[in-house]
Amino acid sequence: MEMMSCPHCGAQNSSKREYCYECGGDLRGAPKKDEPDYIPTCANCAHALISAPLGKHIGPDQVWCGKTDEPVASSQVAGDCFDEAFTWKREDILD
Ligand SMILES: [Zn+2]
């Protein structure tokens, strides 16, 4: 049986396993290729506010854009004004 060591805790696992038996960590390493590419949307933008300013209303599928000062669809593909809301990278939170 082929073995591999867990990248999280170092425990030996069968290379057939997807999750570490010891710590439950993901053994597959890099995200699968079939995972859709990350596309920044207005919901991911630093200018997006989850609640509208006083007197304004947004729907459950909208965010308030603090840049243009208007409601935008949260799934809308972000434009040139996009400003990443998070400074961490996806890899950082997997550890
Ligand atoms: Zn582990």
Task: Give an account of the 3D structure.
The chain is mainly beta. It has two domains: 1-30; 36-79, no CATH class. Helices cover 5% and strands 17% of the residues. The chain has one helix and five strands; from the N terminus they run βββββα. Strands 3-4-5 form a three-stranded antiparallel beta sheet, with no helix packed on it. A hairpin with a 6-residue loop joins strand 1 and strand 2. The longest helix is centred in the C-terminal third of the chain and has 5 residues, at 90-94. It is elongated. The model has no long low-confidence stretch (mean pLDDT 85). The chain binds zinc ion. Zinc ion binds at residues 6, 8-9, 11, 20, 22-23, 25. Zinc ion (ZN) is lined by residues 6, 8-9, 11, 20, 22-23, 25.
Query: So how many helices?
Result: 1
Q: Unreliable segments (pLDDT under 50, ≥5 consecutive)? A: none
Average per-residue pLDDT, rounded, comes to 85
Number of domains: 2
String of helices and strands? EEEEEH
Largest sheet: 3 strands, antiparallel
For the terminal residues, how far apart are their CA atoms?
A: 27 Å
Secondary structure class reads mainly beta
Radius of gyration: 20 Å
In terms of DSSP E residues, the strand content is 15-25%
Key traits:
95 residues, mainly beta, 2 domains, two-stranded antiparallel ribbon, 5 strands, 17% strand, binds zinc ion
Compact overview of the structure:
With 95 residues, the protein is mostly beta strands. It is built from 1 helix and 5 strands.
Q: Any chance you could write out the topology, listing elements then pairs?
A:
Elements (H helix, E strand, L loop, with lengths): L2 E3 L6 E3 L33 E2 L12 E4 L4 E4 L16 H5 L1
Antiparallel strand pairs: 1-2, 3-4, 4-5
The protein binds zinc ion (ZN).
The site of zinc ion has 8 residues, from loops.
